[in-house]
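Records of this kind hold a single protein each, on a pair of labelled lines. With that in mind, the following record should read easily:
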Amino acid sequence: MIWTIARWSVALLAMGVSAQIAAEAQDLSSSRQSVGQPSKDRIVVGLGAAVTPVYQGADDYRVLPLPAIDIVQGRIFANFRNGVGLNLVDDRALTIGAGVTPLPGYRRRDVPTGVDRLSWGVGGRIFANLTGGGVVATLGATQTITGSTGGFVADASLSYPIILNPKVIITPSIATSFADGKHMDGYFGVNAREAAASGLDTYRGKAGFKDVSALLNIVYRLDSRWSVTGSVGATSLLGRVKDSPLVEHATRPTGFVALAYRF
């Protein structure tokens, strides 16, 4: 249920995976206590904070206040992972949607002196969620439209919501992503001019699997309207991208907490 104007890192994306599934698990929990097929429509808003690296692979951390939004009204959705768009197919077992989503950048002060900042961007996204046997599988693809790194990123995740009781839902998740060379070079690359200014080695990114994440999300329902969400997890960079001079740590933990109200 976490959505913000910029996805600051893949760690926050992983939080979005679990938080969105947790909201769906709350729907499932409610449906078990009701008769008939409940509506999927919901409006959840709130405020949270995340502790996350200033960019993927960075040594420094920052605390980010984040709005919490998870909206489904008919075929229209707005959430952290998929941005804003329309569900083209929407039933209990399969959801296929498309929309636009913000893409992350980093500030000049967050990277070594001499390395350019990376502007935010906007991407077009398509995704499919498949639910079966209690497991939620998601496949998605995002193509940059403007700004940010350019390029293409594909992602996949598996989540398993566990309803311990009507108040507590635990969701372990794993996720991975693949990026093309343009994205890898835009985010992790160091060109000759930047190398001369910063003293870093030059580096050119290439297509490949970018990262893998593991996350544990816990939702505690205070009542029928209010809930608290907490997440802990870690993201590890994969393959050659770890050789980028911008990467100080291949694996970084993250944390998140939010208080949300459901209308």
Observations:
- Residues 195 and 201 are 6 Å apart (CA to CA).
- Helices lie at 10-31, 181-188, 192-198.
- Confidence is low (pLDDT under 50) at residues 1-15, 31-38.
- Residues 10-31 form the longest helix (22 residues).
